[in-house]
Every structure is written in structure tokens, then in C-alpha cells.
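Final report, closing paragraph on structural work. Over the funding period we assembled a curated collection of sequence-structure pairs, and we close with a single example.
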Amino acid sequence: MNHFAGFTVPVAGGHYAMLRFAEDGQAQPVLEDGGKPRLFPTELEAQKAVTDHLLAYFNGRLRRDGETLSTARDAAERIFRKGRMIPVEHR
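Its predicted structure, as stored:
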């Protein structure tokens, strides 16, 4: 199921920023460098982290069924060039 979600969860001492991506089955918290969930002091700061991380995901490397965009682009260029690869010369 292609479902994305971002929300905050109140916990003792602050809030967690939670993210769920289409390839994951459940939401995961935004983590610190050590791998522990990052605790935000306010709900607004947690929501800003949700927004930042979702935008970084959507604007990151595009994938198609486990492939990167470059392999898809290479396949499309072979189709539009009728199977011929055009050599590129670097000067």
C-alpha cells in the first residue's frame, strides 16, 4: 500500500516526530545520530522535523520498483534511440 504519513506523538518530556514511508509497514521516529529517537521539546519543533524529513525523502533519489532513476533513464534512451548507443566524447 503506497501510504505516507507524518505526525507527532506526545511522550514524557516532549514529542517524537514520526514518519511512515510506503515501503515500511509502520511509522518510525526521527532518530538522533546514535540511533535513539530524537526528543523535541515542543510539538511545533517535532512537526517541523516531520515536514523537513518528508520533503527530503520526496526530493531525494527517485526510484522505480527498486531501480534508481539513472537505470530507468538509460533504458528509455535506448528505446528512443532505437537501441543504438551514441558515444559521448569528452574534451
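The CA atoms of residues 11 and 68 lie 37 Å apart. The two ends are 48 Å apart (CA to CA). We thank the funder for supporting this effort.
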